[in-house]
Design brief:
By secondary structure, the chain is mainly alpha-helical. Helices cover about 55% and strands about 0% of the residues. The chain contains 6 helices and 2 strands, in the order H-H-E-E-H-H-H-H. It has a two-stranded antiparallel ribbon with strand order 1-2. Helix 1 packs across helix 6. The longest helix is centred in the first third of the chain and has 23 residues. The two termini are about 25 Å apart.
Length: about 180
Amino acid sequence: NAERLNVLYMTMFACGIIQIVMAWLRLAKVVRLIPETGLLGFMDGLAIIIFMAQLPAFQYCDDKKLFIECTLEERKWLNFQDHTLELCLVLIHVAICMAIMKFWRLVPKVGSVVPASLVGLLVGTLLEHTLFRKAIGTGTRTVEETAPISGSLPEFDWPQVPSGDKTVMTNILSFSV
């Protein structure tokens, strides 16, 4: 398992080097060779993955201290009968962030300079920690309530890939291209 992870890291490193070389050689026009249906399929797949990653924000678990410790069977969906306030707060976050993403670019001068995603993140954080938690007294689940936070900054470590194995090196190059 550790060897596979090192091969993945080395593949991503090789992919980055190839991208830098292609940018240095000004080969961006090669992207036009990728069919539009391929690009749309890739972007749709990314959208589905991001959407599915956001779904746990609409779930809760009373059995464990941290949300990540709950099994899929222990997780329950927020509903308007039992958790009206929490569900409304999550939906308010979603609506405000979607509105910012849609309309921020229409703000003169600033809208084209500051990314809408950054503004949505800052507004959501400000809203959560000022209005929801201070004024209302409750809020949505935070990262600290979802999973443990500890440790330090990661240290650089060169991936340990078997150098004599030609199939591994072939796989790294084929997957990075």
